[in-house]
Design goal:
The structure is a homodimer. By secondary structure, the first copy, chain A, is α+β, with helices and mostly antiparallel strands. Chain A is built from nine helices and four strands, in the order E-H-E-H-E-E-H-H-H-H-H-H-H. Chain A has a four-stranded mixed beta sheet, sandwiched between helices.
């Protein structure tokens, strides 16, 4: 089965968490919106999709299934491609981790858009400075230390079980994104996060992930996605 | 099995979405933090919980399972208490809806806390006014119309399948909360949301929900939870 991924063509965004799972799984997929006529196909899907309309991208078509919400798509892919723990407790734990990553992502995004996602950054710059300072002081350390502790509790290498699962890929992407957006702050924060650094390095070195990151399929970071580098927001 | 729910004792908050599912299911549960020594027990659980530490409440202990993240807890309860659709497509759809409700809740909360959850409302009042105005103009209608459309696509009464499922309970709570927080704006918005109004009424009339809402177990709305009524933020 060839999956169809529908996500904005110009950004990594939330779609990137799905792309990483598809790539690590070696799954057959098309990134629909990046092809000819793809954005139109995506807009059509968002307005349609029968009985299960998506609120927003990413959306994954898997045969007859139309699945939206990043954590939901990853739960589905994780089970199918051995990127999730087996057993109920493990499945719930992986989903719990992914939802905590999702909460973190909202807070990361809102550092540059604290007032409204529909306004330009330039129209909420003062508020963004205020939010970012508190985010870097309070929230980022809280989330990052939590994930460091979760890896530690799980034996020191992965978040869930004895091998890589989809939340590991998502946490990798979160670290990469934070390093791009807040290089100065992350340099300080990461000093006390050895397991998170190791997890980043081990994911980056996986052959399929490595090949993907070096390919044209990997969209560079820019000022349209979740992770944006505005030097004035860094510590 | 008696469930143990761990959530802040003084607010509805995210715990309320779990409480409503437990109540509608007629499940045996203890709201731990509301009992003697309960807050201390909750703080102990948050710092511990073995291999699967929660990032934040709510947390549900179900026998040996320790489950956090509201949507994750509800997926678990939904399956066990026939409050979820049967079959993979239905399970994914219910989870997708719940995650979209979760996204909406973050935006609702951030109307009064756009800069930081760790600051008082009074310290971000100007930003809250700005964010609330845009929320009521753009985001609230977008989310509410989406759910109206989802009910319509599903036959007009429920969000998923032919009977009540856990996202219906959560959508009910969201409507109740929005009416409390933004009474003027909701009066206008709801004019064009007949299915959402009907869903609210049918959930409120269910015997177990009705008994719960009239009981002391239902904590009144206040200025500590997700839904807060500040007249200056209403339309």
């Amino acid at each position: 089965m060839r999956y169809e991924l529908y996500y904005w063509a110009e950004i990594q965004g939330r779609g990137e968490f799905v792309r990483l799972a598809l790539e690590e799984a070696g799954a057959d997929y098309i990134d629909v919106a990046r092809g000819r006529g793809g954005e139109a196909a995506m807009m059509k899907l968002l307005g349609g999709a029968g009985a299960h309309p998506p609120f927003a991208p990413p959306v994954l078509k898997a045969g007859p299934l139309v699945i939206a919400q990043t954590a939901n798509i990853l739960m589905y892919l994780g089970r199918r491609h051995r990127l999730a723990p087996a057993g109920e407790a493990g499945i719930l734990w992986a989903n719990q981790l992914q939802l905590t990553i999702a909460d973190f992502l909202v807070e990361i995004h809102d550092t540059h858009h604290p007032i409204a996602s529909g306004l330009y950054y330039e129209d909420q710059r003062a508020e963004a400075r205020r939010r970012s300072a508190l985010f870097l002081k309070q929230r980022a350390p809280k989330f990052l230390k939590y994930f460091e502790r979760a890896i530690e509790r799980n034996g020191g290498r992965f978040l869930a079980g004895a091998k890589l699962t989809y939340p590991d890929l998502s946490l990798f992407q979160t670290v990469v994104g934070l390093r791009y957006a807040f290089p100065r702050a992350m340099k300080t924060l990461e000093k006390n996060l050895p397991r998170l650094r190791d997890l980043h390095d081990s994911v980056a070195a996986r052959p399929r992930v490595k090949a993907y990151l070096a390919s044209k399929r990997r969209i560079p970071f820019n000022r349209y996605g979740i992770f944006r580098h505005y030097p004035e927001l860094d510590s």
